[in-house]
Specification:
Radius of gyration: 19 Å
Number of helices: 11
Low-confidence stretches: none
Structural class: mainly alpha
Number of strands: 0
Shape: globular
């Protein structure tokens, strides 16, 4: 571990991975609770268009990805809320439009090619710059701030939208807040995990936590712990075995889910059965 920290690019990547491990499961808990597990995938495809737009215009791809993914997240939430298109169809529209837009724009960019997008699709630890770390840090603070300030209201919304309306909560605004927060989380994670795998980091640690506890807050805390272990553990392993970091991070997260699934079943079976009258 000490020799790993001797490299500046790994120091930056580990810091980014730590921030991703904290933010992605925290936001993912609300997304999973609201049965929008594929939202991260849809936003990831839209963010691809934002990355390509950055190359085309000569601006920072991370910043253009933030702008485009936020607009895409707002669009899908508005379409879903109007009820004219179901949530899965709206996500499918984002999938197709995002990929097509990204490929088209990168082909128009000066010196651009589809291979230029590979580091954003699958993650690349060697390309994480100091500027990326600062942007990721700022976005992570914003995301965690939203969770800390509006966590109770978002919990009520995710549990039952009708109850949230009856309680006088601004349902539409809170729904948009979740979508925008998810969009920011996708952009945070794309440099290390990759846009095609970021949704797994938002969902798998939450599913892992659900195997061991049923409370919302305890599930979120466990999900964050598993998220940090997956990102830092997967990134560290990728350094020593020279494998893609995004894939290893997701595989470590899936391994944690399998272990938690087995442990959860063992604990439930070992509990004494209640005697029936």
């Amino acid at each position: 571990m000490i020799d790993l920290l001797q490299y500046d690019f790994m120091q930056r990547a580990l810091l980014a991975a730590l921030l991703i491990g904290l933010t992605a499961p925290a936001v993912g808990t609300f997304i999973v609770q609201r049965r929008l597990a594929l939202l991260g995938d849809g936003i990831g495809h839209v963010a691809l268009t934002g990355v390509a737009l950055g190359f085309l215009t000569g601006t920072a791809p991370v910043l253009t990805a933030v702008l485009v993914s936020v607009l895409g997240a707002v669009a899908i939430e508005l379409v879903r809320a109007r009820g004219r298109t179901s949530g899965d169809v709206a996500l499918a529209l984002l999938f197709y439009g995002g990929i097509a837009g990204g490929v088209l724009l990168i082909s128009l960019a000066p010196g651009g090619s589809n291979s230029t997008l590979m580091s954003y699709l699958f993650g690349s630890i060697s390309t994480v710059t100091a500027q990326d770390v600062w942007v990721i840090g700022a976005l992570a603070v914003a995301v965690l701030g939203v969770v800390a300030v509006f966590g109770r209201e978002l919990f009520v919304l995710c549990q039952d939208e009708e109850v949230a309306k009856a309680s006088g909560l601004p349902v539409r605004l809170l729904s948009l807040l979740i979508a925008v927060t998810a969009a920011l989380t996708v952009v945070i994670a794309m440099r290390v995990v990759g846009l095609l795998l970021v949704s797994a980091l938002m969902v798998v640690p939450v599913a892992t936590g659900q195997q061991l506890t049923r409370g919302f807050r305890s599930t979120m805390l466990l999900a964050v712990v598993f998220g940090v272990l997956a990102t830092v553990g997967g990134l560290t392993t990728s350094f020593y075995v020279e494998a893609p970091p995004g894939a290893l991070i997701v595989l470590v997260a899936l391994g944690g889910f399998v272990l938690a699934l087995g442990l959860g079943r063992f604990v439930r079976r070992s509990r004494p059965q209640e005697s029936r009258p």
